[in-house]
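Quick one, T. Sequence first:
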Amino acid sequence: MTRETHSFFDRHAHGFVRVATATPACRTADVPFNLAGVLAEARRADAAGVDLVVFPELALSSYAIDDLLLQQALLDRVEEALAELVAASADLAPVLVVGAPLRRAGKLYNCAVVIAGGQVLGVVPKSYLPNYREFYEKRYFAHGRGCVDLWIGVAGEEVPFGTDLIFAAGNLAGFSFGVEICEDFWAPNPPGTMAALAGALIVCNLSASPVTIGRADDRHLHCRASASRGICAYAYSASGHGESTTDLAWDGQGVIYEMSDLVAQSARFDLTPELCIVDIDTDRIAAERLRNQTFADAAEAAGHPADTYRKVVFEHAATRSDRTLIRPVARFPFVPDRREKLDEDCYEAFNIQVDALMRRIQSTGAKSLVIGISGGLDSTHALIVAAKACDRLGLPRSFIRGYTMPGFGTSDHTKANAHRLMAALAITAGEIDIRPAALRMLEDIGHAFANGEPVHDVVFENVQAGLRTDYLFRLAGQHGGFVLGTGDLSELALGWCTYGVGDHMSHYGINAGVPKTLIQYLIRWVIATGQFTDACGQVLDAILNTEISPELVPPGADGAMQSTESMVGPYELNDFFLHHVIRYGQRPSKVAFLAWHAWQDRDGGLWPAGFPAEQRRAYDLETIAVWLDKFCARFFGFSQFKRSALPNGPKVSSAGALSPRGDWRAPSDAVATVWREELRSALPPEIVRTLPDLG
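Structure tokens:
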């Protein structure tokens, strides 16, 4: 199978709907010209594989024409233009949502006309008519409030008319949308919200919206609020160049939000027609609604609109030839791509941890903090959080008792970094060589290593990990303190910790809510913002550039150190998998599809600000599938028993944490077969053949 033929590469198979806002060529009251502009953008959208196009308010007539809206000749020509547009749509795949003034029962309405495949699916009237300052819409239009269960004649057919309409593709799951018009979303009770409660995953807003200073920000605010509250995608299209500038100006702003995320926006004040295109993840939206019981409660409080709204079902002429994905897919979903957002998130994450630890110190009345310092990322981050907590509480940093505990695989490099870091932070530092005690334990249990055999199995490793934790707990008791855990969210997801008396356990797990990829950025942020001395920053930088390793096995004959990522997979991929699994419950095949788009091209897409160029990697689909299969096996079928017995620790990311008292609960004896089978069922056969048998 090839990329061109296998369903895995089809975005529609993964719940994506391609949405566009259009800013067509426009001329005041020139209906034929405006029709040509709408058709031109509709055809461009068709060529781009778009599923849904949202045009501006009154696009066929233009908006700012005042009393010309009451001229019968103009209204007649609009209706003729609509008939032409409907006929032309028979050869186009996208659903078109076009603004037009329409007459019904002796009244004129400001309408959104939904067109697809040579027919009008329905007409939605504007609910709220602005009639203040520069707006005089009540002079021309009747409002649509209360217009339910009605019909209207358009292009020679009687079609549904009202504010009670939801449109849904019968052949493309997730393609469901509702419509509101301009002022509607400025109202305290936007009809688009009711459409979302009725089941629409996408809400379209056809707007005119003259521009003034600050108006663009206001639109963003309302679009984001509508998308966030309605747990939906929100596509907003405003009028652009060509509208009347008798008293007003227009910027042609197109904005698309997916829940709280801005996923696409147009260039404003562009003199040329424009399409703003993005692929909306309707699966993600549906998953969030499933998890958010407040949404269901709101639908109940609103009288269950899903039971009263009319659903207009249509067959979507979806194209299968374009296998691209027009959408930003973050390589590091726990790490923002934008520099200013990265700084803000790092500030919040670091201070969440610091504040949580301060409260724990206060509540326990501890006389010390005890922490094992390996010279690796996790213990380093836990230590700098502890140092900052002491600073804010007015405690001397000697309050922290750090111990490096070299074992059989400890390198001189990491041990030296541990000592340098403790010295730079001026904590109480100590060293305990655990090798004699480990050797005695291995002798006591009859392990082959004690007899000189090079057996470096799990028992060999866990004896060392267990001894380190045992020492730390006894030291905490001796010094009236508590053990600060260092294990992170990524390790907990993979079960990469020694259960019980091992790095699994502590008195307080300060890193339990922070994934490995974010920890690296938090340390970089600490350096960049000068949280500690330059000397400390230099040590932190050296630690960042050290390969991640548990250092429990002596180096090989070639001097190579034990590598964690060679065993469990790259943390950057595992964190990607983790985010999409625990935050949205995505199918493994969907996660693989997203990961492939995010990671296939080293030089494409966005990297977080400051990410070292030499560390940038790419992964092909086969590599992604192999590690995702192992992730599923470990996460769903192996490691939950460790997560079910976690110490306390703060949640940091909105993506979730894995505490059994938090937002992830699962049985310890579940099996991973369902997830691993689903992955295999969707991948191309040549990729499936590289995966191990389920057995």
